[in-house]
């Protein structure tokens, strides 16, 4: 039986960086990990409710969190920062209020900033959100995958692999379909591979979307 490992954790410290930066005592470590997860879930749910619709999607690649003594600094890496800034519901101000409500009363200072990704379609998270949005709107899966590969080529990537599993196009039996373009050396540690898993909530059930993107080698 094959042994699988997460492509990001496999390369952590080599071609991948940590998403959280802080130090804690052993008895506080689990609580801070839960706090980081609450912050990320709060931001993602806000984007899903107020920004993501049938015509666009949030476009968040990852969320970096840095904790200091009296400050929590959050960096939202996104390919479309205008969607957050120009939101009709006060945009970043309302998002900061929502995040502040999830923190402990001791943590009073919060810094929230946006980091723009120059080539958003070269990120697996944005492509996975795009695929999920198309599948939820009942677009054919193969057509969606072909369009996603075309968008990825605009991001200067050397290879991409997409896998979709579930009841594709409303079929009775679940199956797995995948497509690959270029090189994706998943077993090479020095290869800069970004990976994302995303779940699409369709009327036929949940579809699992996995995206691997190979950019270059160290």
TrEMBL record:
One MF term in the entry's GO annotations: structural constituent of ribosome
Protein name per UniProt: Small ribosomal subunit protein uS3c
Major location category of this protein: plastid
Family that this chain belongs to: Belongs to the universal ribosomal protein uS3 family.
Lineage: Eukaryota, Viridiplantae, Streptophyta, Embryophyta, Marchantiophyta
HAMAP family: Ribosomal_uS3_B
Chain ranges of the KH type-2 domain: 47-118
Keywords: Chloroplast, Plastid, Ribonucleoprotein, Ribosomal protein, RNA-binding, rRNA-binding
Classification via SUPFAM superfamilies: Prokaryotic type KH domain (KH-domain type II), Ribosomal protein S3 C-terminal domain
Quaternary structure (record): Part of the 30S ribosomal subunit.
NCBIfam families on file: rpsC_bact
Entry GO terms, CC: chloroplast; cytosolic small ribosomal subunit
Annotated organism of origin: Aneura mirabilis (Parasitic liverwort)
GO biological process: translation
Pfam families: Ribosomal_S3_C
Superkingdom per UniProt: Eukaryota
Subcellular location: Plastid, Chloroplast
InterPro entries tied to this protein: KH_dom-like_a/b (IPR015946), KH_dom_type_2 (IPR004044), KH_sf_prok-type (IPR009019), Ribosomal_S3_C_sf (IPR036419), Ribosomal_uS3 (IPR057258), Ribosomal_uS3_bac-typ (IPR005704), Ribosomal_uS3_C (IPR001351), Ribosomal_uS3_CS (IPR018280)
